[in-house]
């Protein structure tokens, strides 16, 4: 069986501007004069991961370790500076809250807009409309502009849209953390249903208990490198122990 996701020795590079440019005109003038100065930054370095169909992987690490960058790379939003990413199926990415929504349009209008972005026909979206609304629990807010929604309401609608059909790969980045406990449990049930049907999961969360529940395997990113990968319980336990040691050292310094 071939991996559905194959990350082969991948490095991601960002170019960070070292000087302020206040206008588009100034940017192009500096560009033509070769006066634009950048500093290279590598959020991910030499990452390798093979994900088989139906696997469930949790991606853990401190803020800034490269977790969201990793998911954007797999989703095709970011291209590798070195190495190669091969994807063997359809992806439903839930990476940024509100992505794909137009804040000035109502929830009803955004459902059809998002469906069109995902490649679904108007007729298909009409057939699934009630199911989407019921899962998102937004029946009373269909004609309210998305910009007036709370982060939790946006998360409910985004998750409902992304999971209305079974994707080959579901990518979830901390979006469940903005919902209440009841909705988080509801989402976990939906994710488990998808996993039972063969969907592959990449899941970023700071909740190690959630990673242990949903994921069989885990990748620990630290200082932009892969620190450890394997059984989710073992990786989460190692990460938790490391965090406890760091906290103890910090308390000793300031104690």
> What is the count of helical runs?
8
What would CATH call the homologous superfamily of the largest domain? P-loop containing nucleotide triphosphate hydrolases
Contiguous low-pLDDT stretches (5 residues minimum) are none
Mean pLDDT: 86
Give the % helix. 40-55%
Shape assignment: globular
How many β-strand stretches?
A: 9
CATH topology of the largest domain: Rossmann fold
Structural class: alpha/beta
Q: Topology as H/E string?
A: EHEEHEEHHHEHEHEEH
Question: What's the assembly state of these chains?
Answer: single chain
Quick recap of the structure?
With 255 residues, the protein is α/β, with parallel strands linked by helices. The chain contains eight helices and nine strands. A hairpin with a 2-residue loop joins β8 and β9.
Q: Helix and strand layout, with pairings?
A:
Blueprint: E1 5-17, H1 24-32, E2 38-51, E3 56-60, H2 67-75, E4 82-87, E5 91-94, H3 107-117, H4 122-136, H5 151-162, E6 169-173, H6 181-196, E7 200-204, H7 208-214, E8 217-222, E9 225-231, H8 232-254
Parallel strand pairs: 3-7, 3-8, 5-6, 6-7
Antiparallel strand pairs: 1-2, 1-4, 8-9
Helix pairs in contact: 3-4, 4-5
Report on this model:
By secondary structure, the chain is an alpha/beta fold. The protein has 2 domains: 1-9 and 47-90 and 167-255, 3-Layer(aba) Sandwich (Rossmann fold); 101-165. It is built from 8 helices and 9 strands. The protein has helices at residues 24-32, 67-75, 107-117, 122-136, 151-162, 181-196, 208-214, 232-254; strands at 5-17, 38-51, 56-60, 82-87, 91-94, 169-173, 200-204, 217-222, 225-231. Strand 6 (169-173), helix 6 and strand 7 (200-204) form a beta-alpha-beta unit. Helix 3 (107-117) packs across helix 4 (122-136) and helix 4 crosses helix 5. The radius of gyration is 20 Å and the shape is globular.
